[in-house]
Structures are given as C-alpha cells and as structure tokens.
C-alpha cells in the first residue's frame, strides 16, 4: 500500500494505517534529518516534530498523495531549524549579545536606548496592524520554530495562504516603520 492511500485512511481515523504510515515514513524522515548533520537524538526529535505536525494537519489535506512530499519538506524545515538553534546556542563569544558576561565591553547606554526605542517602534507598528497580521507577527517573533502548517493552524487559515500573508504583513510593517522614521536596516 502506498503512503498516499495510508494517509487517506489515517485521516479517516484508521489507526492501523497511521501506524503503517509512521513505520514506512520514519526511515525517510530520519535520513532527511541526518543529511543536515544532526545527531541521532536530534534526528529523532525532527521525526517526532514532523509526525506531530502531520497529526495536526492531516485532516485538512485535500490530496493524500502529496503527503510524502509534505513530510519531506516539513522534515527539512524542522532539521534546518534544529541546526540554526544549535548554531545559535554555540555561537562564538564575540557574537553574543551580552559581551560583559564574557569579559568584553558592555553596549553603551546610547546603544541600549536605541535598541529599546527600535523595539518599541516595532511593537507599536505591529499593534496597528489587522488582528490576523498582528497575530502572525507575534507568532513569527515569539515562536520562530513554527512551520507554515503550524502557523496556519494557529491562525485558522489555509497553509498555502501563510506565504502571501507573511509577505503582505512584512510590507505593511516596513511602511509603518518608515512612517515612524525607523529604517529596516536599523533593526536587529
């Protein structure tokens, strides 16, 4: 039985099909994650996060035959996020924001004040956006690990609309920030 048919049956609540789907798809997901240089433990985390995303998204899938491609894309994105988090957590001391903790020079009071003002301008601009765009911006800033499918679930929209919504939201944000005298290049 192919994964598309298993997906369709799993979406209808067939637990045997769900188990077969996981058994059939997990080796591919694990291999995808390992191609990003992740440890076995991190690769298993990517697999689990991908299956959890599918469990949330499966009832909304219109084309079960697309599930294998969706799984591969989601696993790649999860693996990329895992690598970025790992790299961010292991950044060299000279790239950390709090240089004083490592014996470096603390940011000046002026730099701290400018950063705080930019942050306030950013959130003021976000506050004036429509509710859906405001929620999207909050999710992007506060939960950057969310996939497009997860964002779609959180916002109650179709997964295909996340990209255009994000593009329009950033365009509006840039306009609002310019109106406040903040250049996008000034943002961290």
Automatic annotation (TrEMBL):
InterPro entries referenced in this protein's UniProt entry, alphabetically: RNA_pol_sigma-70-like, RNA_pol_sigma-70_dom, RNA_pol_sigma70_r2, RNA_pol_sigma_r2, RNA_pol_sigma_r3/r4-like, WH-like_DNA-bd_sf
Residues in RNA polymerase sigma-70 region domain copies: 21-88
Keyword tags: DNA-binding, Sigma factor, Transcription, Transcription regulation
GO terms for biological process, alphabetical: DNA-templated transcription initiation
Molecular function via GO: DNA binding; sigma factor activity
Similarity annotation: Belongs to the sigma-70 factor family. ECF subfamily.
Protein name in the entry: RNA polymerase sigma factor, sigma-70 family
Organism in which the protein naturally occurs: Amycolatopsis arida
Organism phylogeny: Bacteria, Bacillati, Actinomycetota, Actinomycetes, Pseudonocardiales
